[in-house]
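Q: My labmate handed me this sequence with no annotations at all. I'd like to see what the chain might look like in three dimensions before we decide whether it's worth expressing. Could you predict it?
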Amino acid sequence: MAQAIRIIGIDPGLRRTGWGVIDTDGTRLGFVACGSVVSDNADSLGLRLRQIFDGLQAVLAELSPAEAAIEQTFVNRDAVATLKLGQARGIALLVPALLGLPIAEYAPNAVKKTVVGAGHGDKGQIRAMVKCLLPRASPDSADAADALVIAITHAHSRRWARLEAAMVLGTRAAP
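A: Here is what I predict for the chain of 175 residues:
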């Protein structure tokens, strides 16, 4: 891809943080890699967060993305689980920030709507759309598939932002 930009999508979680990397030139998407960083349930919270940090740091060092996209936290009924998810999400934000990458955040429903067409698509629909949009991708978990969808959402969002900017500039340039 000429002038491709590399994007990492991150689906934060304390047990498993999914990541997916794509290249996009604005109109085309290319699969690079995907996977999950898994923390050990038997370890303390601090060690588990360190495992996520180290795992994401290794992925970013190896694949060198230019931008990052991360799913926003949704609040569920279990306050303790939401807090732990927030801590894992903090690590997911910190790692690309330490590298100076621009970071975009997307609501879970916006991510699903971008790829499935509805804000409440199920995991099966998401995997099917990932396979359609990135035929070479074979995510090993739902978290990795979700991370690819987050990266795809960011690629589409970048394209729309450029189109909107061009329309504004075109309008101002017109007499």
